[in-house]
Amino acid sequence: MEKQYKHWEDVRDLLRNWREENCRQSEDVVDLWNEVLANHFGKLGDEGWLVLEQVFIAALDCHNMEVANFCLSKLNQEFPDSLRVKRLKAMKYEASEKYDHALDILDLIIKKDETNAASRKRKVTIYKSQGMIIEAIKELTDYLRIFMADQEAWMELCDLYISQQEWNKAAFCVEELLLHSPFNHLYLQRYAEIKYTQGGYENLEVARSYYSQAAKLNPKNVRALYGLMLTSVHMASNSKCPSQKKKESIKLSEWATNQLSQLQDSNDSKLFSSQILEGMGNLQIGNDSKN
Amino acid sequence: MASTCELSKLAYSKIILHAFKYPHTAINGVLLANEGSNSQSVKYVDAIPLFHHNLGLAPMLEVALMQIDSYCRTAGLVIAGYYHASEAVAEMNPDPVSQKICEKIAEYFPNACLVLINNRQLSMQMTQTSLSVIQYSDGKWKVKDKENLKILPNNEAALNSVSTLLSKKLYKKFVDFDDHLDDIHQDWLNVSLKSMID
């Protein structure tokens, strides 16, 4: 984004990339549109409609209603009866905090097309925006009863449960994700984090094994390495831990520390095992049933 | 005599930059004061941004606090407060996670302050401090009056300074602890930004 005058084809490719990877770069999208792509819209062909949708959503994110309105009117002109465009209208109401209007439109869409997953998910976000987390959770669990394979939804539900400190339910969501993708180191790490936060010696053991698996799958996952170090040290200093496991834990924590120092590989590192291990006892925020 | 809560320009700027970098998620961070500070009238000289994902999970929070504590000991500082911005734009109350963390901080630094960002007052051209402060003392949370929150050298100068930083989009280069965990070479102390802020 540092280059001031990008060629419109490069911008088009960049936006396509961001669309495919579902990146949230709203400010950049709107800037690139204004500076470059808006003048070359005619050259985009059918992709232009996807770009308009992307710019519309980015503009709403930045509360740039002028650009949003422009995009929406062009889309509406081209696709007047489209449910997809109707959903975008609902998003515009959502961005203006006119939640009732937004909900009306979404309910209409769902009535017309019960398989419309995206509209159901927008209802969840409307509740979330208003801070109505319980309602959002209910809406999302109803959604997941129908669309059980939606990983993004399970992840969102997990986040909602974490914000409500419902650790068991959050763990359940990650378990669903792990069924879909058992080798995803990020899901394994997330599961370990939830277990660790729950507290208790058994959960600590579970956390350590999930952190180990995550670190094994991706030795560069810094959170997994730190987690492994934390859990190993806690286990080793816990009276419930049998001596065999203590030795194992100490070895694991040493391995994790080495991996971290290799990743850091510079001289002014602020990390370090001695400082951290020193501080270990003092700052436990999770449930205090660890010791 | 009401106790005052002062924020240095550096601490304030970092809070605002953090909020601007991740406008779509909740963010949090800790506030640092000089060692041996009088907890009645606390002056926060720096802020360390923590997370923008899953603020409620413990392990990375513990790792972060340990490293910050380590840093504090070398710099003669102490963790003395906490700041938080909610995900929902209208939310003005501290959530249970923030309270828990701040209570923990208060165990070591009595009367720790929890600074909440008022999302609605944020803008590219800052005209209001956009902060509200509650303080944990004697086991209770008390809201501090606006007059008892000061940004140094004075509110107007700080607001102008921050607005300049925002117009230069410096928040894009800002690093929080989550960013550091994603890429271990990123500096959560934001040393390079410090000179630009002063």
From TrEMBL, chain A:
Compartments, as annotated in UniProt: Endoplasmic reticulum membrane
GO cellular component: EMC complex
Keyword Kinase assigned: no
Assigned keywords, A-Z: Endoplasmic reticulum, Membrane, Repeat, TPR repeat
Membrane topology, from the record: Peripheral membrane protein
Subunit structure: Component of the ER membrane protein complex (EMC).
Function: Part of the endoplasmic reticulum membrane protein complex (EMC) that enables the energy-independent insertion into endoplasmic reticulum membranes of newly synthesized membrane proteins.
Record's protein name: ER membrane protein complex subunit 2
Lineage of the organism: Eukaryota, Metazoa, Ecdysozoa, Arthropoda, Crustacea
